[in-house]
Structures are given as structure tokens and as C-alpha cells.
Fold this sequence. Notes:
Elements: E1 21-26, H1 34-47, E2 52-57, H2 59-62, H3 69-85, E3 94-97, H4 103-112, H5 117-121, H6 124-132, H7 139-153, E4 159-161, H8 167-184, E5 192-194, H9 224-232, H10 253-258, H11 265-273, H12 279-305, H13 308-337
Parallel strand pairs: 1-2, 2-3, 4-5
Helix pairs in contact: 3-12, 4-7, 4-13, 7-8, 9-12
The structure holds adenosine-5'-tetraphosphate (AQP).
Amino acid sequence: xxxxxxAKPAPRASSLPVxxxxxxxxxxxxxxxxxxxxGAIRNYVAMQDKxxxxxxxxxxxxxxxxxxxxxxxxxxxxxxxxxxxxxxxPKRCTVFVQSDRPEVTELCWLFNTVxxxxxxxxxxxxxxxxxxQPDDVNHGLLTYPVLQAADIALPKASLVPxxxxxxxxxxxxxxxxxxxxxxxxxxxxxxxxxxxxxxxVLGTDGVKKMSKSIGNTIEVLAEPDVIRRxxxxxxxxxxxxxxxxxxxxxxxxVCQMHRHFGPDYEAIWDGERTATTGCVDTKKLLAERxxxxxxxxxxxxxxxxxxxxxxxxxxxxxxERIRPIAExxxxxxxxxxxxx
Length: 340
Ligand code: AQP
């Protein structure tokens, strides 16, 4: 892409937020799994006091692969309830549904005009999705990262808590924002990813990233028996055949997960290394710890889902809260781009 420097408007002060704003989006595609929580939601919760935090349930994104209207509506509410149950406090942060602020689709279109199509075709997730859903290679899959850039730019967020799987998308967001700023003047901050200490959580197969579409998840708000079953199916150290074989805790996903659930990670590591504990013992312990850890969230989730009008009101309020932010950005962008 080339930018015509002579056509660039004179630089002027941009209306950047005073307190750093953070934004992150999550798809309403089922109950959150351990990867979502350890890789992203924990940071959403930790960052809600220090920053002006905005969290979005990205139903427009989900439309690239969810085509059942009732399912989408239900899962949107479920994800809202899950986020609040896991620690988001709508008094301390904003939680809203993407389609409640359709300004983002306009910004996405405007960003499309500064985004070379080659950037999108090269995105690894586009290639993956094309392979995963060959009968439904819709245009939304290609434009997905542009909508994501618009999501982040609409509130002029500078920090984005995400898992490492989003690194390429976030880099693209930065490039899109940079391309916009280069053509139309400094308008948006270049967003930075913020990772947790578990930026990539492996799935129950111990090989691939935990992911709903792969089906290797541990659903944190599921019934205890479901969690037990999912954890007991985890692949451990594949070279440890007999219980008496010394294990390799550094490659054992179960051992690695203990790091996040309990104070005795070193002891568990040692037990596995010296074969004093077996894989089944370690899995059972992990299952009970995860069940106990998420028990209050599970209870809160059930409570929230039992009062849907209240949940909808929280989401309505979130969308209203960011209305002035979205409108101000769009006014500025339209003016910069020469629209009426
Ligand atoms: N395994 C993971 N490790 C670390 N972080 C992860 N995230 C997702 N999986 C992991 C982070 O969770 C946030 C929400 O991502 P999303 O909306 O893409 O969530 P998802 O649809 O639940 O992710 P999946 O399961 O991976 O979906 P599919 O299979 O549909 O692609 C993001 O910040 C993400 O990085």
C-alpha cells in the first residue's frame, strides 16, 4: 500500500482518552474454557480497576460460523453471565454486546479501505478457518481482523488483554491503525497486547491450543462431573508407560496446569519426576481443585441466568455507556476521511 503524503491532512491533536483504555472481545460461542480464563479473562478481571476497561461479547464475529439465531442469542447471554460470574463487575468496567453498538460496522468498512487484501489473506487464522469450514468460506472470515481492529479502535483502546493465539490479529490491528493514521492523521493509539502468565493453554490432547472448535476443552463452569471427565481424558507424558516410570513434568500438561491451582506445584513436579505419584492421582487432584476453584463462579452463573431481564439490563447499560465514546470517534473519523 502506498500513502499519498501530499493528501495527508495537517497533523492536529487527537482526542485520546486520558486514562489508558483497555478493550477485549470474546465470542459468544459456548461456555468459557480454561484457555479463555487463564489466557485472557483473568487479565480482564485484574485490569478492571487500574484502567478504563471495556469488554465486549463479539456476536458479529460469531456470525462467521454460528448461523442459528436462537443459539446465538442464548450464547450471547450465557457469555455475559459467565464473564460476570468469573469476576467482571459491571460497576467497575463496561460489558456490552458488539451488535448493540453498530458504529463498529461502519468503522470496519472505513478500515477496509486502508487495509490491503493481501494482509488479510496471509492471516494464519483465515487459512485455518478456511480449512475448518470449507463449505462456508464467507467473506466475514477474511474481514474478521478488520472488524477486530475496529472494535479496538472505536473506544481508542491502547491495551488489549488476549491470549497468544491473538498475536497475529493484534499485529494486524496495529498495522491497520498505523495505515489509517498515516493517511488521515494521528487518530488512534496503536494497541498493545497484554498477556497473562499462561498465554497459551494447551487442550486436553496436550498438543494443540485449548479450543472449542477442536473439542479439547475443560469448561470451567460445567457441572463437576463434566469437568472430572474432561480432566481424566487429558493426555499426560506420553513416554510414561507404567506408573513406576519417572515422568517428565515439564512436558506434562496436567502438571503444568497445577501451577495455576494450588501452592504445591513444585511438590507435584517432584512427585511426577520421581514416580511417587501417578498420572491418575495428579489428574484427580487437579479436577477437584478446578471444581472447587470455580464453584463460586458456577453458583453466580446460575443465579445470573435465572434473572435474564437483569442480565439484559446490565448489557443495555454497557452499550449506553460507550455510546458517547463511539459517537465521538465516528464524528472524528468521518470528518478526517471527508465524509459528511
Ligand atoms: N487456549 C488458549 N490459551 C490462551 N488463551 C486463549 N484464548 C482462547 N483460547 C486460549 C483467549 O480467549 C479469548 C477469547 O477468545 P475467542 O473469542 O477466540 O474465544 P474462543 O472462541 O472461546 O476461542 P477458541 O476456543 O479458540 O475458539 P475457536 O475454536 O472457535 O477458535 C481471546 O483473548 C483468546 O486469545
